[in-house]
Prior knowledge:
The structure holds two protein chains of two kinds.
Chain A: H1 2-16, E1 21-33, E2 37-42, E3 49-60, E4 66-74, E5 82-87, E6 93-97, E7 103-107, E8 113-121, E9 128-129, E10 136-147, E11 158-159, E12 165-168
Chain B: H1 2-21, H2 25-31, H3 33-36, E1 48-53, E2 55-62, E3 68-72, E4 78-81, E5 83-85, E6 97-102, E7 108-112, E8 118-122, E9 128-138, E10 147-149, E11 155-164, E12 171-183
Antiparallel strand pairs in B: 1-6, 2-5, 3-4, 3-11, 6-11, 7-10, 7-12, 8-9, 8-12, 9-11
Helix pairs in contact in B: 1-2
Amino acid sequence: MRLRSIIVLLFSAVSVVGYAQTNILGKMEVELAVPVTAMETELLNFGKIVPEAGGGSVLISPNGERTASGSILLMDENYSAGSFSIAGVPNSLVSIVLPQSAQKLSLTNGNSEITVDGFTSNVPAGGQVVRQSDGKTEISIGATLLIGNGLSNPAGYYTGTYEVVFMYN
Amino acid sequence: MIVTNHLMNNIQRLTIALVALTGSLSPLIAANPAASATIDVELVAPLSMAKSADMQFGRVSMGGAGTGILVLGVDGSVQTTNIYASQSSSGATPAAAVFSVSGLDGANYTVLLPSSPVALTKVGSTETLNVSDFTVKLASKVAGTLIGAIGSDNSFAVGATLTIPQTQTEGRYQGTFPVSISYN
C-alpha cells in the first residue's frame, strides 16, 4: 500500500515539472501623435487709451470685451483679445499654459514700460476639444494692462510679447 | 477475502507494471520496495501567470529637439524628455503592465524580463520603436527586486523606457514583450 502511494506521488511530480517555469507575452502600445501647433491669428491689443493721473488698469477678456478701472479713458474701438488657431489630433483635448508672471510692453521709440498681467484664456478646465472635422480649434487670450501712474508713461506705441504653451491634455 | 486478495494481487501487478514505465528509477523501486519508502517527493503546485493589464505608454507627441525618451514607471507614472505625454483625458492613460502569479504558497519565484530592447511596430507599417530597460515591482517588495514569494507577491508590475527618434512618423505602435517566472 505504501509503495503504491509513493508511486502515485512520483507520477504527480513528473507531471508538474513543466510548470516550474512559465512564460507569457505582455502587450504594449504607444500612440505617436502629431504635435500641437499654434498660429497667432489676432494680436492681444488693448487699443488706444488715455491714462490720467491716478492710473488704473484695462482688462481685455478672452471674449474680447474691454473694461477700464481707475482713472483711464478708453478711446477707439480697435482692440482685441489674443487669438490662436490650434491644430492637433482630431477629438483630442488641448490645454494651455499662460504666462505666470507679469510681462512688459515697451515704448517703441523710448525707454518706458507698461506691465501686462493676469492672463486668462477661454480654454475649459479639462482642455479644449480639437474638432473632429478639420483637426483645429481656436483659443482666445485676455489679460490686464496695469498703469500705476498715468504721468509716468509718455504717450506712444507700446509693444511686447508673451509666451503661451499648448499641449495635449 | 479471497476475492480481495486476488484484487490486491492484481493491483500489485498493475503497480509494478507502471513502475517499469517510469524509467531509471523504477528498477530500484521494483528490486527493493522497502528502500523506496524513504524517497522524499514534494508535490509542487504549478506556477502560473496571467496578464492583468497591458503596458500603455499613452498618447505622446514630439517636442523639443532631439530623441524623445519616455520612462514609464512601475506605478504608471511618466517622465519625458523631448516628448509631450498626454494625460488621462486625451488618448489612452499611461499604465504599467501588471501580471498575476499563483503557485505553491510561500515558494519563491524569480521574474525574468527582456534584457535587450524589444520593438513596437507601427500598425499597418514596418516602422519600429524600441522599448528597453524593463523594470519590475513585486507587490510587497521595493521596485527592482526580482525575487518574490507566492502569497505576498501574487502580482507584479512592469515598466519600461520608450525611445522615439526625432524623425519617427506618427501612428499607433504595438508590440509584445516576454515575461517569464520560475521557482527558485
